[in-house]
Amino acid sequence: MQIPALSIKKVSHNFGDFKALDKVSLEIKPGDFTVLLGLNGAGKTTLYSLITRLYNNNSGSIEIYGYNVRSQSVNALKHIGVVFQQPTLDLDLSVSENLNYHSSLHGISKLDASEKIIKEITRIKMDDQLKKKVRSLSGGQRRRVEIARALIHEPKLLLLDEPTVGLDIGSRQLILNHVKTLCKKNKLAVLWATHLIDEIDKGEKVVIIDKGKVLDSGDVEKIVKKTKTKNIREAFNKLVGIKT
Amino acid sequence: MSLIIYLRCFNGIVLREALRFVHQKERFFSALVRPLVWLGIFAAGFRSVLGVSIIPPYETYIPYEVYIAPGLIAMIQLFNGMQSSLSMVYDREMGSMKTMLVSPIPRWFLLVSKLLAGVFVSILQVYAFLIIASLWDIIPPVSGYITILPALIISGLMLGSLGMFLSSAIKQLENFAGVMNFVIFPMFFASSALYPLWKIEETSEWLYYVCFYNPFTYAVESIRFSLYSQINIEYSIGIIIFTLIFLFLSILGYDPSRGNLQKKAGK
């Protein structure tokens, strides 16, 4: 039996009296591109914070390639690359300095890091920008550098939390295509959180989340058929209760 | 996880702090200007008002500038510790702290590495200050420049871990101004940095005890004795105990299951 890249079982989380997540369960297989679709405030970022152990989950379990995030965090976190919703690059450092810093946080030697940095930065076609300060890059370029950074330590699971927010259509498409290509070529499992329905293609797996609950999950076609709608937009609106 | 991985991680964190320091030259100069203002202006005005008798480690009467120099060195480290904690609150709010916290390396190691990186930067500032302070005839014995180093490391760690603990407890960047009023100034003034403790005892006994048990006094006195290649056991033990307490609290503050981050994160 294949070990899931990510397995979340009955995870709940409260902020005081507010229930941010309510018995959330989902599973991602290696090589899957899964979209976590939900409106702002649905609980996507809270879920990411629990998966990456920024916060501890106090109920349910989260496993990455079979390693429990809470009790086997070193092995679990080794397998993930993360692109957060907020930009997290150090603006005062160059692209190369930022990437080297990330490599050291994963214990990669300088020699290995140089090779991996060149490989990733070339893949996003920004090898001529290595010496540039991050502050001088555009929003789309910064995002691409963050994706390159998340891949330097060769993770098997990539988590992206609304990575295209605030970007123009061209940059959005570029980033989305880049990640989808990586997923297909490298068998990388991806969890892509978004509230933008047009980022979902036919045949992809979707998890619809609202008010901390998973409303439905599965292939786009399956959800559309189940909700008796014409497309994923209508299905989402119906499940979440948006009247059009 | 092997030792070499920890070492690479430590090197990376120190290098990043050093690069930030190099890129922010104004931070270096402002860190130097503050104690130099105290040395050049405050000490000049108060040298005739505040007479300093012969107290260990000094073997003769000393000018006031010489007396306050260790206090100003500790002040550099205090402000550096608070500056580091301010940047941690900023990094946490802006998100860049997350990249460090999701590393597979244990969190306590990441935090101690970040602390040591801050101490390294503060030591560079202290030596730059000592070079300039020689213009005021503050010239300790040559061996003092070496023997001060362990005291600087431990006092830097103590003040840095205090700052780190505060950063874990502060919810928003805006609240940091309160730290200035309620931590830095009381710590600095209620210590032996500007006046010997016996002078305070003559005025107020309870204030004397406040100053005596102030961790900053232990930093100042450890630096003062080590600058003259001497060790004061009482202050040395005291500063180690305070360092361990603050370090424990700061690691606890950033622990995802028990600390202040978890309290903010909810349940």
Which characteristics define this entry?
heterodimer; A: 244 residues; alpha/beta; Rossmann fold; 2 domains; 6-stranded mixed beta sheet; 8 helices; 36% helix; B: 267 residues; mainly alpha; 12 helices; 0% strand
Give the spatial strand order of the biggest sheet of chain A. Answer: 6-7-8-3-9-10
List the domain count of chain A as a whole number: 2
Question: What distance lies between the first and last C-alpha atoms of chain B, to the nearest angstrom?
Answer: 30 Å
Binned strand content of chain A: 15-25%
The total domain count of chain B is 1
Task: State the total count of DSSP E strands of chain A.
Answer: 10
Report the mean per-residue pLDDT of chain B as an integer.
Answer: 85
Number of strands of chain B: 0
Write down the Rg of chain A.
Answer: 18 Å
Q: What structural category arises from helix and sheet content of chain B? A: mainly alpha
Using the 3D structure, state the CATH architecture of the largest domain in chain A: 3-Layer(aba) Sandwich
Number of helices of chain B: 12
CATH superfamily of the largest domain in chain A: P-loop containing nucleotide triphosphate hydrolases
* Helicity of chain B, as a percent range: over 70%
- How much is the radius of gyration of chain B in Å? 19 Å
The CATH topology label of the largest domain in chain A is Rossmann fold
Percent helix of chain A, as a range, is 25-40%
What characteristic shape of chain A results from the CA principal axes? Answer: globular
CATH class of the largest domain in chain A: Alpha Beta
